[in-house]
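Suppose a colleague, Dr. K., hands you the sequence of a protein chain of 173 amino acids and asks what its three-dimensional shape might be. Before reaching for any lab equipment, you can write down a predicted structure in token form. Begin with the sequence itself:
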Amino acid sequence: MESLTPDEFAHRFRGAMPRLWCIAVGVLGRRDGAEDVVQEAALIGLRKRSEFSPGTSFEAWMGQIVRFTALNTARRRKAERLERVPEQAAQERAAHPVTPDGLLRDDQRDFDDDVTHALGTLDPTARASLLLRTVLDLSYREIAEVLEIPEGTAMSHVHRSRKAMRLALGGRE
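The predicted structure, expressed as tokens, is then:
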């Protein structure tokens, strides 16, 4: 089987990056760390490029790598949070809400707290489906392809996620 050259991989990866980033955000539930996940997944994909089957969707293949990388990152973060004293973590966030150059931290400027919390209650695949639809305006077919799920499942995830968000936000738009 013929594998992608590093240049071909880089070209395809650049084209897929916005969708891959959205998958990472969807799985993680926040922007913080999504770029790191996508970069880590890029290195994994580059090493495993011989496993990519020509004629299949590069975005779907890389989407799976991003999803698994993000899930591993989320598990690691959860374990780290459980190890830290909750009060200490809250004090750190309150003490440093901005970066040294005066900007809000990435995790502080994405969405308001209510939206971030509501997104965090969604299943990772449902959250990724919702973000791919609302942020990147992908069709249900494209979401299905990127996440390797049936198109009807993508539609259901988006519909149920929107409904859950409306309920969680108390009818806010």
